């Protein structure tokens, strides 16, 4: 369990958290949320790297990463509940996960982001990520461009 600012803490997901994570994801990405079965399999296969923000009463965010494979990790998802955005929680989540991936032997961390997602792009840049290649105009299909970004430790 990792203490965060205020009463919040970061902990490993449990099966009982899945409906709350599903709700957060649907609220954040209404057009394209993870289906329940995908979250369920992330929980089973990557549960040690699927961390949720808890304050003892409710969940307020989550982060999902892959453990290092050949020294390379991916951040697959990052969500802060809408009411808490802009207060440093996203940075705390990323900083905690990056520290952990580094300890586990990652030499680089990769992610993709919608180039129009100003808050996410700003966050990643502030953490030291830089664009890797040109934006892919249809990375997740038509109208879904993504920029790959990379942080080297
Ligand atoms: C992206 C997201 C996780 C950021 O979390 P957050 O808690 O709001 O971010 P923070 O308050 O920690 O801000 C971190 C940095 O991002 C920047 N930032 C945050 N909101 C911003 C905004 N609306 N516009 C521009 N920059 C912004 C700030 O400059 C801040 O840098 P600083 O700490 O040096 O001041 C959050 O907005 C979110 O959940 N968005 C919806 C889901 C999403 O887009 N996830 C990323 C998918 S790739």
Q: Write out the CATH superfamily name.
A: Gcn5-related N-acetyltransferase (GNAT)
CATH class: Alpha Beta
Unreliable sequence segments: none
> Percent range for helical residues?
25-40%
Structural class: alpha+beta
Q: In total, how many beta strands?
A: 8
**Biggest beta-sheet profile:** 8 strands, mixed
Strand order of the largest sheet: 1-2-3-4-5-6-8-7
CA radius of gyration is 15 Å
Q: SSE order, as H and E?
A: EEHHEEEHEHEE
Ligands bound to this protein structure: coenzyme A
Short description, anyone?
The chain is α+β, with helices and mostly antiparallel strands and 153 residues long. The chain contains 4 helices and 8 strands; from the N terminus they run ββααβββαβαββ. The protein has a single domain, classed as Aminopeptidase, CATH 3.40.630.
Structure description:
30% of the residues lie in helices and 27% in strands. An eight-stranded mixed beta sheet has the order 1-2-3-4-5-6-8-7, with helices on both faces. The two termini are 24 Å apart. It is α+β, with helices and mostly antiparallel strands and 153 residues long. It has a single domain, classed as Gcn5-related N-acetyltransferase (GNAT) (Aminopeptidase, 3-Layer(aba) Sandwich). Strand 5, helix 3 and strand 6 form a beta-alpha-beta unit. Residues 28, 78-80, 85-91, 113, 117-120, 122-123, 126 line the site of coenzyme A (COA).
């Amino acid at each position: 369990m990792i203490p965060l600012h205020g009463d919040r803490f970061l902990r490993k997901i449990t099966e009982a958290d899945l409906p709350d994570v599903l709700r957060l994801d649907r609220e954040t990405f209404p057009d394209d949320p993870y289906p329940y079965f995908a979250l369920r399999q992330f929980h089973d296969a990557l549960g040690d790297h699927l961390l949720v923000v808890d304050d003892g009463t409710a969940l307020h965010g989550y982060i999902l990463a892959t453990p290092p494979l050949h020294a390379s990790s991916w951040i697959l998802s990052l969500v802060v509940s809408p009411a808490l955005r802009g207060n440093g929680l996203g940075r705390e989540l990323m900083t905690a996960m990056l520290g952990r991936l580094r300890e586990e032997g990652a030499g680089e961390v990769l992610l993709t982001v919608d180039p129009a997602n100003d808050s996410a792009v700003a966050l990643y840049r502030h953490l030291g990520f830089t664009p890797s290649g040109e934006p892919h105009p249809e990375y997740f299909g038509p109208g879904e461009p993504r920029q790959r970004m990379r942080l080297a430790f």
